[in-house]
Amino acid sequence: MAFDTVRYSRQGRFGPLGEAGQERLARSRVAVVGCGALGSVSALALTRAGVGMLRLIDRDLPEISNLPRQVLFDEQDIRDGLPKAVAARRQLQRINSDLEIEAEVADLTPRNAARLLGGVDCIVDGTDNFEARFLINEVCCRDQIPWVHGGAIGAEGRVLAVRPGSTACLRCLIPEPPAAGSLPTCESAGIIGPAALVVGAVQAAEAMKLLVGVPEVGNALLACDLWEGTWRRIDLAPLAEAGCPTCRQGDFPWLEGRQGAATTPLCGRDAVQVAATGAVGIDLASLAERLRSVGPVTANPWLVRLDVEPGVQLSVFADGRVIVTGTRDEAKARAVMSRYIGS
Ligand SMILES: [Zn+2]
Prior knowledge:
With 343 residues, the protein is α/β, with parallel strands linked by helices. The chain folds into two domains: 9-240, Rossmann fold; 263-340, TATA-Binding Protein (2-Layer Sandwich), CATH 3.30.310. It is built from 13 helices and 14 strands. The protein has helices spanning 9-13, 18-26, 37-49, 75-80, 84-95, 113-117, 130-143, 170-173, 186-189, 193-212, 237-240, 284-291, 330-340, and strands at residues 29-33, 53-58, 100-105, 122-125, 147-153, 156-162, 220-225, 230-235, 263-265, 271-274, 297-300, 303-309, 312-317, 322-325.
């Protein structure tokens, strides 16, 4: 028996899962992309459910406005300046010490997608942008990895489980990504914590079903509105038969770099990410030393953070990425970066 029968006795007693299902979960490897609101909840649920391995992938730091819904973080994590993936691993490991957890402080890009998303049985989308979601969709369609898309805004949520090759994929549902700024975001429309909790929980349940091989998963968009108190299940079977370029014809524009951007405003916060320009393996210790003469510096093995001016912070990650918080102006972010980092 590959799992603790006492710890998981109630789940094992649930007929459709059973001990065989629980054993399958214990052997399962799952990647959670994005450890914000949805990723926090789904990672928490999968940790407690007894999966065997979790890979947590996130590019960002927790901040105070995250705490109403990002259930894995607390005020101390913010004071410590820990990246979300690392803080999440610390918290989840306390809950389940049997679980193997990998923390990847990284931005998902076409270059690292194969490494970050490889070797897993299921991927859960905890991201907040279409670029990452389409990238996940393409990797999953190419490599036949089941995955679960999720989104939450305001009091609304939606979940789509994808089994590549047999159900509708994200591109079947959304043939072209919406133009930047054309949709409401958590920034403009806000979000209530329970919407994120519900969507993350539904994603975790869909992931569990995919992992144990429940055949009926997918081909439906599950949508809820917690303020209206409504739940809908929208049949996507006709879309799956429509000859989608990605899941049926092998067209991968995001993965092949024909679509995408280098400077990214981060959803729901005053921050801009400037992607690495090939400068990997930055010497964070000597950077921290240099920046100490400029202003207050927080340094740990994953990043160096500098208080540039009141309300503006510069965070440099070991993989070469820079996040400038306190602005949404991409030109200003690049200026702050070149002033203090010199590239
Ligand atoms: Zn498709």
